[in-house]
């Protein structure tokens, strides 16, 4: 049930496709152009199609790298805790709290890094970054405004900045 004047909570996109683009940047540029033309962009949606999870391998994971990463993350956390404790330390005790937090954080970080790497037992000896990417991006628009939006995007395509993908022909 929707209250009049309140937006729908349904997350599924609706509207007509007014352009399909190869990259998110192109779809974003199309909506930005509509905004520049004073088009009511609150009636548009960018939808990524054919999502894929991509894992980019960034390097080999070794004991040294696992311990170093644990040391670094633990030291940062220890530094944070040391700063917090140092704020409330009696006169002159803030430096000791800071250094104690840094050292203990680094040691605990190394220990947790070693435990985590040891549990892998060689089954994942690499580091990586994971992202979700789409094959194409559709810009949708509410039915009421779709024709006006298409006209604006046609002008953008004529400028040669961003051109939508042409619909695929069926044989």
List keywords for this structure.
single chain; three-stranded antiparallel beta sheet; alpha+beta; two-stranded antiparallel sheet; about 170 residues; about 45% helix; 5 strands; elongated
Mean pLDDT: 87
Radius of gyration from the CA trace?
A: 26 Å
Secondary-structure element order, as H and E?
EHEEHHEEH
Helix content: 40-55%
Based on DSSP secondary structure assignment, what is the total number of beta strands? 5
Given as residue ranges, the uncertain stretches (5+ residues, pLDDT < 50) are none
Please report the number of helical segments: 4
* CA distance, first residue to last residue: 43 Å
Strand order of the largest sheet: 1-5-2
Largest sheet: 3 strands, antiparallel
Q: Characterize the overall form.
A: elongated
Helix/strand-derived class? alpha+beta
- Percent strand equals 15-25%
Q: Can you describe what's shown?
A:
With 171 residues, the chain is of the alpha+beta class. The protein has 4 helices and 5 strands. The protein has helices at 24-36, 63-87, 94-120, 146-159, and strands at residues 16-21, 44-49, 52-60, 126-133, 136-141. Strands 1-5-2 form a 3-stranded antiparallel beta sheet. α2 packs antiparallel against α3. It starts with 15 loop residues before the first strand and ends in a 12-residue tail after the last helix. The relative contact order is 0.25.
């Amino acid at each position: 049930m929707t209250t009049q004047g309140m937006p729908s909570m349904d997350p599924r996109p609706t509207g007509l496709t007014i352009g399909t683009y190869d990259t998110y940047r192109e779809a974003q540029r199309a909506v930005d152009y509509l905004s520049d033309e004073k088009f009511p962009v609150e009636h548009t949606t960018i939808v990524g199609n054919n999502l894929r999870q991509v894992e980019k391998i960034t390097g080999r994971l070794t004991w040294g790298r696992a311990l170093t990463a644990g040391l670094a993350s633990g030291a940062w956390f220890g530094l944070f805790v040391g700063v917090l404790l140092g704020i409330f330390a009696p006169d002159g005790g803030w430096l000791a709290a800071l250094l104690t937090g840094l050292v203990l954080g680094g040691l605990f970080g190394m220990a947790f890094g070693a435990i985590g790497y040891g549990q892998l037992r060689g089954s994942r000896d690499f580091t990586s970054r994971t992202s979700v990417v789409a094959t194409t991006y559709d810009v949708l628009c509410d039915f009421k405004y779709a024709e006006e939006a298409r006209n604006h995007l046609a002008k953008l395509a004529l400028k040669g900045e961003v051109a939508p993908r042409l619909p695929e022909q069926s044989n």
